[in-house]
Amino acid sequence: MITPGFIAIWLAWLMAGGSPGPATMGIAGTAMNEGRTAGLAFALGICAGSAAWGIAAALGLSAIMLANVWVFEVIRYVGVAYLGWLALKALKRAMTSDEVALGNPVTGSLRTIFTKGAAIHLTNPKAILSWGSIYAIVAPNDASLSMLLGYFGLLYAGSLLIFIGYAFLFSSERMVRTYRRARRWFDFAFAGFFGVASYKILTVRLS
């Protein structure tokens, strides 16, 4: 299951999760303005929403991919397009000198903050697209349910690392200053990695 190819895709998954977006910027803004505990509550809510989509995608794709091999190819190319879109988005950010806001803080009780975090992922169509695409990329077209759930565990561990890590990192003023100074270089790195990953997935020969 864990091959050099999977490790490369897992790293791309980490970078996709860590690139600027509603979830990561929401965690950053909340951790910066409301403190580490609030940032962690928001991050855990996002992780809960992500888990719901990840398990749902595994359960659905397990049956669909076995019955219709062509679905595997369709979802794979959707994943390629998604990675390409992320590469262009990161490149566009890197080419501008405008300051990128680190998101608006989420306020309220810890339960409210957690719920708002879960709602972000549960109402985000890109979340289910991301999970469906990554399964189609990393799993063989005859993948069993147990195999897909195994991939879920490995990928979800990466999501936990990114989202919870953001809550810790962005509750530190030093990290915020470092990110702002090096933002453009981060975005250039994101663009290059996403572009290469998209090309590799597009040209790989499936058995």
Automatic annotation (TrEMBL):
Transmembrane segments: 38-62, 69-88, 148-170, 182-202
Lineage: superkingdom: Bacteria
Chief localisation class: membrane
Organism phylogeny: Bacteria, Pseudomonadati, Pseudomonadota, Alphaproteobacteria, Rhodobacterales
Assigned keywords, A-Z: Cell membrane, Membrane, Transmembrane, Transmembrane helix
Keyword Ribonucleoprotein: no
Family annotation (InterPro entries): LeuE-type
Descriptive protein name: LysE family translocator
Keyword Cell wall biogenesis/degradation: no
Compartments where located: Cell membrane
Membrane topology term: Multi-pass membrane protein
